[in-house]
Known about the structure:
The structure holds 2 protein chains of 2 kinds. Helix content of chain A is 66%, strand content 0%.
Amino acid sequence: MSDSNDGVSLGQKMMDNIFFLLAIGIAFPGIFYFAWGLLEIFLFNNKQLSDYLIQTGQFGGK
Amino acid sequence: MPLETPEKWYKPFNREERIWMAIILVWGFIMFLMMPLGHLGKQNVSSETYKTTPDEFRKTADKFIEKYQVRDKDGKRVFRKGIAVVEAPEKEKGDAFLVARSWQYYPILVLRKNKTYRIHMSSLDLQHGFSLQPQNLNFQLLPYYDFVITMSPTETGTSYLICNEYCGYVSKVQAHDTMIGQIIVKE
Lengths: 62, 187
């Protein structure tokens, strides 16, 4: 780096690095939405309607 | 503009610029968080779902219609334009079922004002829409997927169900744009 960069803050150096911006621009939403997707999958109800009807005593199940 | 890099090009932000940057950052972060946070709270429809099959759902809906169909004073079953009219049970007494298929919704549900109902909805063939008008409640109805909404109507009158997912065309009377159902709310 040249002397002209003396005194440049770390934040400014980061914002000047387009590859760093590209990396965090992909990684941050990527990780966030991946985690959100996993949460949705684990919270999804896999119960069958027939099991629900038996459990609630409606229409004799299936 | 000089063609070569000046010796001291970097100037720290002044106070006003830093304040604006902070506001933008905080607001952007709030907007970002609102996407998942919007899924929490009472403004959302319940996400209760069950796996089903078109055959299972049709049989269940038929049993529901058999049990709850409205009868006239002579004991005859009531239909409106060939569609069974059913007095849906309140939440505590049982669940209601609404079927979508090309190109009709059945049965016609009769609800009571300010009572709470659990309505199971599914499609027997392909993707259909559930657009309750004029209240403008919109859902998707998919085969193999039983979607349950819990609702308490607060107004009397007839509301219309309109399919807002294009579902095909055979003729002028058998087509996506003719797929209209009804929900009747009484006192």
